[in-house]
Amino acid sequence: MSADTTARRSDGFSLLLPVYAGDRPEFLGAAFTSSVQDQTLPPAEAVIVQDGPVPEALAAELRRIAESSPIPVQVVALPENRGLTEALNAGLAACGYEVVARMDADDVSVPERFARQWELLGEGYDLVGTGMIEFERDPDAPGARRVPPVGQERIRAHARTHNPFNHPTMMYRAAAIAAIGGYQPFGKMEDYWLGIRLIAGGARVENIPDPLVKYRVGAGAFGRRGGWTEARTEWRLQGELKRMGFVTTGQYLRNVVMKGAYRLMPAWLKKILFRGLVAGGLPSER
Question: 9-221, what's its fold?
């Protein structure tokens, strides 16, 4: 990532929200409202990345948001769908503030989310994530909680086996992301790889355990976490962790076996195991 971060403003933060053709207009509208109008500390600007062509209904919603927003909105339109990694890098390059808050186009931020994260960023942290609570259709009818580890040492230890951050909840310093080369392609684990590189590079990281984001879970969520493609990505990631000295040989072998087995389980069994961990209050991976 080559964006110049020296000229960014420090008196607020940017909201970074990627959108692609599969997103629904009503979900996008709710996500934006919850992250701007409903916040006790709203962002100073919003950068929405349109990752390739979108249906007219979604394009109309983007126009409505840009025209009616109480804060400046910049829509970065990519000519074709390039995937989340490139979309986020393009969005980060367009953000005008030192601090950037992530948001997905179908989730809901609780009103105090950004105020609580901003306070910790003010204490010198480079990245602050939060807990999440799942919902299927109604954000006010929440389900399982996803509780991340808290404290630098617990986060580092947890990162050896699982993603220690809930990606849609992140608020981070753009300079810290630029220093490690931005987002890098890694299958569906670009966020895990980002967190690992931040931790290994000495960034100050923290999580707020409270669920400050309501995370929409679709019908095929657990099926998308599995299969040979995901297993191979998992094994490749574990190889990188071993190569950089983030895990020992024993930890690497354990992770390859256990996490590979999880990826290859049928979706119904993964759901049972995943829900059991989350319901037990343990940190979980996205």
Answer: Spore Coat Polysaccharide Biosynthesis Protein SpsA; Chain A (3.90.550)
